[in-house]
Amino acid sequence: MTLSETGQVKYRNFKIKVAYRGTGLSGWQRQENGLAVQELLEDAVGKVCGHPVTIHGSGRTDAGVHAAGQIASFFTKSARTPTQMVRGANRFLPRSIAVLEAEEAPLSFHARFSCTGKKYHYDYLVTETRDPLRDWRAWWVGTRLDWDGVRSCLPELVGEKDFAAFQSAGSDVKGTVREIYGAWLTSPEPSIRRLEIAGSGFLRHMMRAIAGTLFEAGRGRLGREDFKNILASKTRPRAGMSAPPEGLSLAEAYYEPKAELRRIFGGE
Asked: Which residues are catalytic?
């Protein structure tokens, strides 16, 4: 706790880690129509702090998208400890959202502007029939995809490139160049194929557009050279559909120097 010369509590900056199930939520950002994670979190944390708070996330997630490692920050005059912040906030949050960790951060820290990278997961459900106990968190694609074909396209994503071909139409983002530190296809469960991509940043719906285009590679409708040409075209209609939101999760947000992230993910 920081005190001013008059003995009054100054503002403190908190960094928190949040997990949420995006089903039924309108995404991260507070909005007029629909219930958002930011709104529910601000209401809960505000009750713990005893005053309204504005919470900034490392990035926005769309309606239906989940998060295991969303990082957020906020200023408060409260004297609550990090443990009290976690326990108190979770008392007021719905079961679909939880604050996992909290710590006091430097006043200069900002969850969004200090962020140097993120990692997203996209899960494909590989079963003969649809599984209602799991298809809320993964895209059911059956069992006939060529995963070697999907894997062969991944090296084309790595590096600093223009990802306009994987950006949703109508986005007002000025620059479409992003750096991807690494891309992998893993299998955390026998019936799940997980696309993992870590990068400096992601365009609107970029991860879902990549996941949908790679689905076409798995169906044998395009190969690595086709995927490379789609990326080079910088044209969204050349790419595949946007994969459904339920398969997507924000896994982690990073605050290390970018050079360190390149080293960690094998970019250097």
From this structure: 62
Distance (Å, whole) CA 94 – CA 187: 30
Confirm if 178 and 157 have CB atoms less than 8 A apart. Answer: no
Matching residue, tokens 């008059």:
6
Q: Report d(CA 51, CA 45) in Å as an integer.
A: 9
Q: What is the pLDDT of residues 86-128, one digit of tens each?
A: 999 999 999 999 999 999 999 999 999 999 999 999 999 999 9
Q: Which of these, 158, 248, 240, 247, lies nearest to 200 by C-alpha position?
A: 158
In the block, tokens 């006939």 appear at 144
pTM: 0.92
Map out the domains of the chain with their CATH numbers. 12-105 (3.30.70.580), 117-264 (3.30.70.660)
State the amino acid at position 93 in one-letter form. L
Q: Give CA separation, 194 vs 118, 125, 235, 253, in Å.
A: 16, 9, 26, 18
Distance CA 57, CA 17 (A): 10
Instruction: State both tokens at 74.
Output: 């906020």
- For 14-28, write each residue's pLDDT tens digit: 999 999 999 999 999
Residue type, 147: W
Distances, alpha carbon 172 to alpha carbons 38, 60, 109, 167, 204, in Å: 22, 15, 26, 10, 10
The 3-state secondary structure of 177-218 reads EEEEEEEEEEEEECCEEEEEEEECCCCCCHHHHHHHHHHHHH
Phi, psi values for residue 197, rounded to 5°: -135, 125
Of 168, 147, 180, 190, the residue nearest 235 (C-alpha) = 168
Residue entry with tokens 């709104």: 39
